Amino acid sequence: MVRAWLAILALLMGMGISFAAGRDSILANDKRWVQAREELAQGKAAEAKADFEKLLADYPNEADLHLFLGMSLLRLRDPRAAEAAAKRAIGLNPRHVDARTFLAWIELEVRGDIDGAIGEYQKVIEMHPELPDAYSNLAVAQKRKGDFPGAVASLNRALELRPDFSAALTTRGGIFAEQNHWAEAERDFAAALKLNPRDDGALYGLSQALREAKDYAGAQHMLGELISRSPNFVYWLEWGRIGLIRYWWVLLSLAIAVALRGRFKKVRTVVNG
Q: Per the confidence metrics, is the pTM higher than 0.70?
């Protein structure tokens, strides 16, 4: 349940949907439209779904309504119906960027149709080549396919359009890390953290890059910061592992000292006996 909600929250807040839909439509003056969107934002998906369906009875050709109904349905764990709603929105308005972005997300994260998602994101870029989020979303799908050069190129374009795009820096840093290009990864993670110090993904990535650079003190410091925010077992395990690497010689010296002490006691016992 928690994972599903986090996925939906990421979808609503981070995948590039503008939420500006409907401002210039006949829905703009309907208070039910505002209320239904507020319900969805508050996690009241069932209430939002009911209200969107009532609005659709009055405005059956409004693409925005089908899109937001689809969001409600996805929140209610009905991805097939959500996908159908997104496709109805696109059928009514083929240039609906938000609907195509939503459909691409479903194809990638729910259906696992990477090529389908890439196709939708490319259509968004064809319609609006000035949108940095579109390139970032495309890069995620390209990375999932294993097309690292294509993903990096898409992220480069996103960062050209928006130099302070911290999420794009984190994603690109992750791609560099997967390819063991740790210097580039460290650069991107550090830059992302300057823009967004609360980016846990960038913080963890930087800890790994510092570990690879043998800056074990720095890596443990980054992990300690993560642990203070969220005492995740993975962070603790990695912190301890780096600690073993960092102080292996101390532990080895102690082990040798204990072993020699035991051997010395045996020798002394034999001599005294």
A: yes
Contact between residue 121 and residue 101 where contact means Cβ atoms under 8 Å apart: yes
Helix axes 79-92, 63-75, angle to 10 degrees: 170
Kindly report, residue by residue over 23-45, the tens digit of the pLDDT: 456 788 889 999 999 999 898 99
Nearest by Cα to 67 from 55, 251, 58: 55
**Residue 19 DSSP class:** S
Question: Where are the chain's structural domains?
Answer: 1-112
Contacts of 77 (CB under 8 A, 6+ apart): 4
Tell me the one-letter amino acid at 11. Answer: L
Kind plus residue range of the DSSP H or E element containing 27: none
Q: What residue type is 160 in one-letter code?
A: E
Write down the architecture of domain 1-112 according to CATH: Alpha Horseshoe (1.25)
User: How many CA atoms lie less than 13 Å away from 200 in the CB half-sphere?
Assistant: 9
Nearest-10 Cα torsion for 163, 165, 168, 170: 110
